[in-house]
Design a protein that fits this description.
The complex is a heterotrimer of chains A (222), B (309) and C (128). With 222 residues, chain A is α/β, with parallel strands linked by helices. Helix content of chain A is 26%, strand content 19%. Chain B is of the alpha/beta class. In chain B, helix 3 links the parallel strand 2 and strand 3. In chain B, helix 8 packs antiparallel against helix 9 and helix 9 packs antiparallel against helix 10. The longest helix of chain B has 17 residues. The mean pLDDT of chain B is 96. Chain C has 128 residues and is mainly alpha-helical. In chain C, strands 1-2 form a two-stranded parallel sheet. In chain C, strand 1, helix 2 and strand 2 form a beta-alpha-beta unit. In chain C, helix 1 packs across helix 2. Chain C starts with 21 loop residues before the first helix and ends in an 11-residue tail after the last helix. The mean pLDDT of chain C is 89. The chains are: A alpha/beta (222), B alpha/beta (309), C mainly alpha (128). Chains in contact: A-B, A-C. Chains A and B meet through loops of A and helix 5 and helix 6 of B.
Chain lengths: 222, 309, 128
C-alpha cells in the first residue's frame, strides 16, 4: 500500500493560518491502514485543530469527512455539496488523493495533512517498510522476489557493495542489506548459481527518470 | 598477452613485475598545490597513483581534474570513478575527458552512500552500478561505441579496474563476485586493505581454484596504522574492514611514541608475506594522509626501484 | 466504604478501558475538561485480556497530542486498580485533582470564557 505519515500539527496550522473554515478530509484506503489519514485520524486532527484555534483566538469552523478513496472521481463527487461550506480542505489522503481532490475542486485550496512516503507493507503494527519504487520494469523474477531497486540504498543491480556488514546496509544497522536478502533467498530456492549472472544496465525510462508516467489501456476505454 | 592500452600500469603487470600503486585524496578546495606535493613525495616509488572520487561522499576537487594534473606532471594516474554521483551520460563523458588527456587507467566503484559525507541531503544517481560501469568502459574501448550505440571518435584506451573486498559480508559470494567483475571486464583489481592475512589467503585460494588469478591482476591493498587508536577505529567503525584482535593488541602493546613505527613495520611484514601468495600481482599502498611514508614502505618491502617499461 | 473523593470529578463508566479512544480523551478537553484519568484493571487482570494495555497506549498518544497543542500532557493519565480497591481509587482521584490544580484551568475553557467576554488576547504560539 501507499504508506504515509501524519504531518506535524504545527505545519498544518501554518498552512491554514488565514482560513476561517476548513474540512478535514480522510480516505478509507491506504492511509486508514497505515493509521495516518482514516476516519480516526480525521477526528483526532479536527479536535486538536479546534483546540489550537480556540487558544489562538481564531474562530474557525472545522468539519470532518472521510470518503472511500480520494483517487476516484466517483467518491470525490460525494462531497460536492458540502465542500461549498468550507474555505479550504486539509486532505489526509496520500499525495495522489490530495492532488485529485484539488483537480476536482480547482477553486478550493487543498492542503496536505500527511507526508506520503513510499509503497510498502506493515511488518508489524506501527512499523511499515518500503518494498517498491515503481520502476515500471519489474525484475523480481531474477532476484528471488527481493527488489534491489527499492531495498538497496544504492539500487545496485549487481550487489552487494563492500559496505554490507553482517546482513546490514552500510547506512544503518536498522536497514537490511538487500543483496544479503537476495543471496539468502536464492540459496533457499536452490538457485544460488544465478548470483553470477550479470544484470544488464537498466532502462530507467519507465522509472521517474522518464518523466511523469501514464498507462493507457485502449481495450478498457469507452 | 600484449598490452591493450598505452597504460604504464598494464605494461608493468603484463611484463610480470609486481606493480605498486598508491592513492591520493584531493583537497577540499581548488588549490592544486596539495596534490602536486603528495604526488612528488611518491612518484619514484609507485607505478601509478589513484585519485579518489569524492571519497566517503565528502565534496573534494574532482578526481578527473587531479588526474589531469598528475598526467601533466608526468605521473601515471588511475582515475577512480564512482557511480553514485553521475549518470551514464556524465560517466561516458568523463571517461572521454580522461582519455583526451591520455589517462589510461580507471577504477570502477560504487561509492560510499552520501549519508556518510557532507551532503547527506543530496540525491544519488546509481544509473549504472560498478559492474555495469566496467562493461561500459570495455565497450567504449573494445567496440568503440557509446552505450547508446553511436561510434566514438577515438575510443578511450582504458585499462579497466575494480575493487574487491575479501572481508565484506557475505564471504560465500566474495569469490563469485570477483568472477562477476572479471566477466564484466575487470582487468585489474585493487583490494580493500588487508590486516587479516589468513582470511586473505583463504580468499586467494578460492580465487585460484577458479583460475581467476590468471584472468585478472590482483593488487593487494595495505594501509599502515599510525596509532593503536587508528587500529581500533578501523576495527570497529569502518564497514567491511577486518582487523584481527592480535594486530590491535600488537599496536596497543607498543608505547605511544613507537606506535607509528610499529604500524609501518606491520605493513611491511604484510607485504613481504603477501609477496609469497600466488596470484598477488602487486600492491596498492593506501597511506591516508601519510603519503610521505610510502617511499619507506616500498623500499623496506624490497619493491624499490620500480621497473622501467 | 463511603470514602470521600473530590467532588470536581465526574465518572464516566465504560465496559473496559479498551473502549476508550484517543478521540474521546481529546473531545473531553475540547469541551473544557481540566483533566482526564483513565482508570482500568490492573495490568494482567483485564477482563478482556488486553483492553487496559490498549488504553495505556492511547493515553500516551493523547498525552503527546495535548503537549503539542499547548494543553499539557500532565492533564491525562492512566491508572490501574482492582475494582474493589476503593482507597486506591480515592488516592488516584486526589492525585488528579492536585495535578489539575497545579496545571491550572484548561486553556480551552479560559479561551472560550474570554472570547464570550471579548477579552481574549490574540495569537498564542504553539510550543516548538
Amino acid at each position: 500500500m501507499i504508506v504515509a505519515e501524519r504531518k506535524p500539527i504545527e505545519e498544518i496550522v501554518e498552512q491554514v493560518k488565514e482560513v476561517r473554515s476548513l474540512l478535514v478530509l480522510g480516505c478509507n484506503e491506504c492511509v486508514t491502514v497505515c493509521e495516518a489519514g482514516g476516519k480516526k485520524e480525521v477526528g483526532v486532527l479536527a479536535s486538536a485543530l479546534r483546540m489550537v484555534f480556540l487558544q489562538q483566538n481564531r474562530e474557525v469552523n472545522v468539519g470532518e469527512r472521510t470518503i472511500e478513496r480520494q483517487c476516484d472521481t466517483e467518491y470525490l463527487e460525494e462531497i460536492r455539496d458540502m465542500i461549498d461550506s468550507y474555505e479550504a480542505v486539509v486532505s489526509l489522503a496520500c499525495g495522489v488523493g490530495i492532488q485529485f481532490t484539488a483537480e476536482r475542486y480547482p477553486t478550493k485550496p487543498v492542503y496536505p495533512g500527511v507526508n506520503t512516503c513510499f509503497m510498502g507493507a506493515a511488518l508489524e503494527r506501527g512499523v511499515w517498510a518500503e518494498r517498491c519504487q515503481g520502476c515500471g520494469s519489474c525484475i523480481l523474477a531474477s532476484t528471488g522476489a527481493v527488489c534491489p531497486v527499492a531495498r538497496c540504498a544504492k539500487r545496485l543491480l549487481n550487489g552487494p557493495c563492500g559496505g554490507s556488514t553482517a546482513g546490514k546496509c552500510e547506512i544503518s544497522k536498522d536497514v537490511e542489506c538487500a543483496w544479503q536478502l537476495i543471496i539468502d533467498r536464492l540459496k533457499a530456492l536452490g538457485r544460488l548459481e544465478e548470483y553470477e549472472r550479470l544484470s544488464p544496465i537498466k532502462d530507467w525510462s519507465t522509472d521517474r527518470a522518464g518523466g511523469p508516467r501514464k498507462i493507457i489501456r485502449e481495450d478498457l476505454r469507452s | 598477452m600484449s598490452p591493450k592500452t598505452p597504460s604504464k600500469l598494464e605494461k608493468i603487470l603484463r611484463a610480470g613485475h609486481l606493480a605498486v600503486t598508491s592513492e591520493c585524496g584531493p583537497p577540499r578546495g581548488s588549490d592544486p598545490a596539495h596534490i602536486i606535493h603528495k604526488a612528488e613525495l611518491i612518484r619514484q616509488h609507485v607505478d601509478a597513483v589513484n585519485i579518489t572520487d569524492n571519497q566517503t561522499s565528502v565534496c573534494r576537487l574532482c578526481s578527473l581534474a587531479a588526474c589531469i594534473r598528475l598526467k601533466l606532471m608526468g605521473l601515471e594516474p588511475v582515475l577512480q570513478m564512482v557511480v553514485r554521483d553521475r549518470n551514464r551520460i556524465a560517466l561516458q563523458s568523463d571517461i572521454l575527458g580522461a582519455a583526451s588527456f591520455d589517462i589510461h587507467n580507471i577504477l570502477c566503484l560504487s561509492g560510499d552512500h552520501q549519508r556518510f559525507g557532507d551532503s547527506a541531503q543530496g540525491q544519488n544517481v546509481f544509473d549504472l552500478d560498478s559492474m555495469q560501469l566496467l562493461q561500459t568502459v570495455r565497450r567504449m574501448r573494445d567496440e568503440g561505441t557509446f552505450l547508446g550505440g553511436d561510434p566514438i571518435q577515438r575510443p578511450p584506451a582504458m585499462f579497466a579496474g575494480a575493487a574487491a573486498n575479501p572481508f565484506a559480508d557475505p564471504f560465500e559470494i566474495r569469490v563469485p563476485r570477483l568472477a562477476k567483475k572479471v566477466a564484466a571486464g575487470a582487468e585489474f583489481i585493487q583490494t580493500q586493505c588487508i590486516y587479516n592475512l589468513d582470511k586473505f589467503e583463504t580468499w586467494m585460494e578460492l580465487v585460484r581454484d577458479r583460475g581467476l588469478h590468471e584472468k585478472v591482476f590482483i593488487l593487494a591493498g595495505v594501509t599502515p596504522f599510525k596509532s593503536a587508536g587508528m587500529a581500533r577505529y578501523m576495527k570497529t567503525k569502518v564497514p567491511g574492514m577486518d582487523v584481527p584482535d592480535d594486530v590491535v593488541k600488537r599496536m596497543a602493546g607498543t608505547p605511544k611514541d613507537q606506535q607509528a613505527k610499529e604500524g609501518l613495520t606491520i605493513c611491511v611484514e604484510s607485504i613481504q608475506r603477501l609477496k609469497e601468495v600466488k596470484g598477488v600481482a602487486g600492491f596498492h599502498v593506501m597511506a591516508i594522509e601519510w603519503e610521505e611514508r610510502v617511499p619507506e614502505i616500498v623500499e623496506r618491502a624490497g619493491l624499490f626501484p620500480r621497473p622501467q617499461v | 466504604m463511603r470514602l470521600g473523593y473530590p467532588s470536581s470529578i465526574r465518572i464516566i463508566r465504560v465496559p473496559c478501558t479498551g473502549k476508550v479512544d484517543v478521540l474521546h480523551i481529546l473531545r473531553c478537553f475540547e469541551r473544557g475538561a481540566d483533566g482526564v484519568t483513565v482508570v482500568g484493571c490492573r495490568e494482567g487482570d483485564c477482563h478482556y485480556q488486553t483492553g487496559n494495555f490498549r488504553a495505556k497506549k492511547r493515553v500516551e498518544q493523547a498525552q503527546q497530542i495535548l503537549e503539542r497543542i499547548g494543553i499539557g500532557a500532565g492533564r491525562v493519565r492512566m491508572c490501574n486498580l482492582s475494582s474493589s480497591d476503593a482507597p486506591l481509587f480515592v488516592r488516584f482521584a486526589q492525585e488528579m485533582h492536585a495535578a489539575v490544580l497545579s496545571a491550572g484551568p484548561n486553556p480551552i475553557r479560559t479561551a472560550r470564557r474570554e472570547r464570550r467576554a471579548g477579552t481574549q488576547v490574540p495569537g498564542v504560539e504553539l510550543p516548538a
